[in-house]
Amino acid sequence: MSQVCKVELEGKTYELPLMFGTEGEKAIDISKLRDLSGYITLDSGYKNTGATTSKITFLDGELGILRHRGYSIEDLAEKSNFLEVAYLVINGELPKKDEFESFTKRIKENMLIHEDLRAIIMGFPSSAHPMGVLSATVGALTAFHPNSLDPNISKDALYQTIIQLIAQMPTIAAWSYRKQVGRPINYPKRNMSYAGNFLQMMFDNPWEGYSPDPVVESALDKLFILHADHEQNCSTSTVRLVGSAQASLFASISSGISALWGPLHGGANQAVIEMLEMIMQDGGNVEKYINKAKDKNDTFRLMGFGHRVYKNFDPRAKIIKKAADDVLKKLGVNDPALEIAKKIEEIALKDEYFVSRSLYPNVDFYSGIIYRAIGIPTEMFTVMFALGRLPGWIAQWKEMREQKEPIGRPRQLYVGNPLRPYVDMQNR
Ligand code: SDX
Questions:
Q1: Total structural domains in the chain?
Q2: Which CATH number covers residue 23?
Q3: What is the pLDDT of residue 380?
Q4: What is the largest CA-CA distance in the chain?
Q5: Within this chain, do residues 87 and 190 fall inside the same structural domain, yes or no?
Q6: Which residues are CB-contacts of 351 (< 8 A; sequence separation ≥ 6)?
Q7: 310-327 pLDDT, tens per residue?
Q8: Rounded distance, CA 420 to CA 157, Å?
Q9: Does position 1 have pLDDT exceeding 70, yes or no?
Q10: Ligand 1, atom 35, residue with closest C-alpha
C-alpha cells in the first residue's frame, strides 16, 4: 500500500502520495494537488522541486557522493575511460568488449563533418566566443541530418544521431579554435583516442607532426569523465525541457550548450581563471577578494565556490585538484594561479561566512588550471565542459523520451494588474 501525506487547506484534508528513491530520497507527488485543492506549489529556481525520476546519476550533496548507474565517480575516474563512461550513462550498463569496440568504431567513422558545416564554422568572425559557435553549429547539424527532426525517430536512427553528436562535437570545437587562431584545420585521425584526437585537431600544425603527451591525453580523458553527467542541473534540465516539446536531439543539445555558457553554471570555469588572474594582477591579495565575496554590497562572488546541491566537498573537485597537482608536476608547469586557488580554498574553508553557508570548491574551481596547463585557451574552458557533459545530456534526453514524459510547462502565481479597460492614447 503506497504511503501518503496529509495536507490541510481551507478546512479540507488532502492525501498526497509519497515516493521513495533507491537511495532513500523522499518525495511528495504533488501532480494532482491543483486538481484536488486549486493550489499549486511555488519554488523559484526549483531548489526543492523534483522534475522527474531517473536511473542515470545519484548524488548526495550532504555526503559528497556522485555515482553514474551505480558506479562511483572515484572508481570511474580511476579505472574507466570517457567513451566507456559515455556508453554507460547512455545505455545503462558497462559495455562488453565487442559492444565497446563497435561503439568506438562507429564514433571514429563519424568524426568527419560535412564540408558545408565546416564553411559555417569558418564563417564566424575570429572574435566569436567558442560557446556561441558550438551552440549554433550543433543546432545546424539538423540541416545535415534532417531525419533527426522526426519526433518518432526510430531507435536505430536515434542511435546514429547520438553517435554523430559524440563523434562530431570535438571536431566542431577544435575547428572553431583553429578558425579563431587563423590556423589550417586538422582532420580527425582514426588511430587516436577520443581525447588524443581532439588534442591533435586543436594543436597539430602541418610542419610539426604533433602527437599528444600521454599525461595530457589521460588528464583530459579524466576531466571528460568527471563532467559526464550531474542529474538535473540547469543545462540538463534545459535539454530535457526542450526535448519534451519533441524538438530534435541536436536542437535540445544546442540549447543545453547555451544554458551551460552562463557564468553561474559551466561558464564558471572560465570565470575562475579570470578571477585568479585578477587577484594575481592585484598583487595576490586573496584576503581582499575573500572579503569582497562576503560583502553583500559587492557583486563579486568567489567563482568556483558553492553549489546548489553539494553542501560538502564536490567529489569531482577533490579528484581534479589532485589531477592538477599531478599534471602540472609531470609537465613541469609552475602556474601561480594554482597556488592562489589553494590559498583561497585554505582561507575560505576556515571562514565562518563560507562554512556557515556550506560553500566548498566545486567542479569548476580547479579544472581551468589543468586546461590552461594543457594549452586550452580560457574562452574554450566551457567548451571542454560541454564535451564532457554531452553523454549526460544525451542520456537524460533519451530517458525523458523513453519515459514518455509530457511537455514541460511550469505554472506561475500571477501578481500583476487585475482586469482594467483599455485607455486611448490621448487619455493616458
Ligand atoms: C556548476 O547544478 C549542478 O550540478 C551544476 C554543476 C554541474 O555539474 O552541472 O555542478 C556545474 O554549475 C557548478 C557551479 C558553478 N558556479 C559557480 O562556481 C559560480 C559561483 N557559485 C555561486 O554563484 C552559487 O554558489 C551557485 C550558483 C553555484 C549556487 O547558488 P544557489 O544554490 O542559488 O545559492 P545562493 O546563490 O542562494 O547562495 C546561498 C548563500 C547566499 O548568501 P546569503 O543570501 O544566504 O547571505 O551563499 C552565498 C549567497 O550569497 N554564496 C556565495 C557564493 N555562492 C553562494 N557567496 C560568495 N561566493 C559564492 N561563490
A1: 3
A2: 2.20.28
A3: 97
A4: 80
A5: yes
A6: 290, 294
A7: 998 899 999 999 999 999
A8: 53
A9: no
A10: 308
pLDDT classification of 2: cutoffs 50, 70, 90: confident
Please tell me the distance from the alpha carbon of residue 169 to that of residue 176, in angstroms, as a whole number: 11
Ligand 1: which of 265, 274, 299 to mutate, judged by most atoms within 8 Å of the beta carbon? 265
Same domain? For 102 and 250 the reply is yes
The residue whose CA has the least distance to atom 34 of ligand 1 is 308
Query: In the prediction, which pLDDT does 207 show?
Result: 84
The percentage of residues in the chain with a pLDDT greater than 90, rounded to a whole number, is 97
227, containing H or E segment:
none
Residues 156 and 236 in one domain: yes
**Ligand 1 center to 175 CA (angstroms):** 33
For the Cβ of 304 lying below 6 angstroms from any atom of ligand 1, the answer is yes
- Cα distance between residue 385 and residue 363, in whole Å: 10
**Distance of CA 200 to CAs 281, 349, 405, 419, Å?**
32, 39, 41, 63
Render 370-399 in DSSP notation, one character per residue: HHHHHT--GGGHHHHHHHHHHHHHHHHHHH
Query: Cβ(238) to ligand 1 under 6 A?
Result: no
Does residue 265 have an active-site annotation? no
Looking at 307, 314, 326, 351, which residue is catalytic? 307
Q: Are residues 203 and 97 in the same domain?
A: yes
Residue 117: name the closest of 154, 182, 167, 190 by CA.
167
pTM: 0.96
Q: Per-residue pLDDT tens for 121-137? A: 999 999 999 999 999 99
Best of 229, 231, 264, 291 for a ligand 1 pocket test (most atoms within 8 Å of beta carbon): 264
What does the pLDDT read at residue 136? 98
SS3 at position 428: coil
Q: For residues 161 and 249, is the Cβ–Cβ distance under 8 A? A: yes
Atom of ligand 1 nearest to the CA of 307: 28
Domain-located, residue 348: yes
Whole domain around residue 42: which residue ranges? 4-50
319 in contact with ligand 1, CB cutoff 6 A: no
